[in-house]
């Protein structure tokens, strides 16, 4: 299948579809955001701001010029129809996976992760999830709604099952979510301690990596809809990416940048650099 690349691509993601192993696309959706909206603007703004970066990563000693990545642009979503949006993400991701490529999605709110994982899971039944976040996202429902960025990891558990979801940096959630996690996921509060052990445990199994950027301390990353005091440093995040780089990553996303809440542009720059590092790690 041939596709035309986006007019304005993310820095270094300007190869042709057929020659690329990784396909990046945006899911500009924030229809279930529970506090401050705005993540729908992240993918487009990140593409523009990415040109403030270099293609070379001194963290990983790798260069975007040495790999092939295709930027498919943003999906064009209807307003007010969450299920149709999820269907569109699922269908698009399915096409990428069936073409033997690795999807990397730029959100958008965290609910966009659900259909992407569903699509990857169809091809990789022994899939594991690495979830980096400030929030548990394990609610059964949020104000009666089962499809929400507050329920996304619980909905993934519905089909993935017990002990295949590794959660790190978690520092916010209802008490029952933390209690539920003790029996069903592998949750680490506050830090990413134990990630190396998780990597060893996962081994060569396929992995989907989802990074909710609010895992970062708000002093580093204030540009998000649900700010949670505390969190890891940017250096910690670089250590995370370095630690997971040898895993069999078959899909990934970076979500929850709301760029307009940080007029300095620092949060967007942080998000762009994390995208660069994650793609290079894959």
How would you describe the overall organization of this protein?
The protein has about 280 residues and is an alpha/beta fold. The protein has one domain: Ureohydrolase domain (Arginase, Chain A, 3-Layer(aba) Sandwich), CATH 3.40.800.10. Helices cover about 30% and strands about 20% of the residues. The protein has eight helices and ten strands. It has an eight-stranded parallel beta sheet with strand order 4-1-5-10-9-6-7-8, with helices on both faces. A two-stranded antiparallel ribbon has the order 2-3. Helix 7 (about 235-245) packs parallel to helix 8. The longest helix is centred in the N-terminal third of the chain and has 17 residues, at about 80-100. The radius of gyration is 17 Å and the shape is globular.
Number of strands: 10
Strand order within the widest sheet? 4-1-5-10-9-6-7-8
Assign an overall shape.
globular
Number of helices: 8
- Helix proportion range: 25-40%
CATH class: Alpha Beta
Question: In the CATH scheme, what's the topology name?
Answer: Arginase, Chain A
What's the pLDDT, averaged over the residues? Answer: 94
Largest sheet, strands/sense/barrel = 8 strands, parallel
In terms of structural class, how would the helical and strand content be classed? alpha/beta
Poorly predicted runs are none
Strand content: 15-25%
């Amino acid at each position: 299948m041939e596709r035309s690349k986006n007019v304005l691509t993310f820095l270094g993601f300007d190869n042709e579809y057929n020659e690329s192993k990784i396909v990046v696309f945006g899911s500009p959706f924030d229809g279930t955001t529970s506090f401050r909206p705005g993540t729908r603007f992240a993918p487009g703004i990140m593409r523009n701001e990415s040109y403030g970066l270099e293609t070379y990563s001194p963290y990983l000693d790798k260069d975007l010029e040495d790999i092939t990545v295709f930027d498919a642009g943003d999906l064009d979503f209807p307003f007010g129809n969450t299920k149709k949006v999820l269907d569109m993400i699922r269908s698009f991701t399915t096409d990428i996976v069936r073409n033997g490529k690795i999807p990397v999605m730029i959100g958008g709110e965290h609910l966009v992760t659900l259909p992407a994982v569903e699509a990857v899971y169809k091809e990789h039944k022994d899939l594991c999830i690495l979830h980096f976040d400030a929030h548990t996202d394990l609610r059964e429902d949020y104000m009666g709604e089962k499809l929400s960025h507050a329920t996304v990891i619980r909905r993934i558990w519905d089909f993935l099952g017990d002990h295949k979801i590794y959660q790190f940096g978690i520092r916010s959630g209802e008490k029952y979510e933390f209690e539920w996690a003790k029996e069903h996921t592998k949750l680490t509060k506050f830090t990413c301690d134990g990630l190396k052990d998780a990597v060893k445990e996962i081994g060569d199994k396929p992995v989907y990596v989802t990074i909710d950027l609010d895992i970062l301390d708000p002093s580093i990353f204030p540009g998000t809809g649900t700010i949670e005091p505390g969190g890891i440093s940017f250096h910690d995040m670089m250590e995370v990416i370095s630690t997971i780089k040898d895993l069999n990553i078959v899909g990934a996303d970076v979500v929850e940048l709301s760029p307009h809440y940080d007029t300095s542009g620092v949060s967007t720059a942080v998000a762009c650099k994390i995208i660069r590092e994650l793609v290079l790690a894959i």
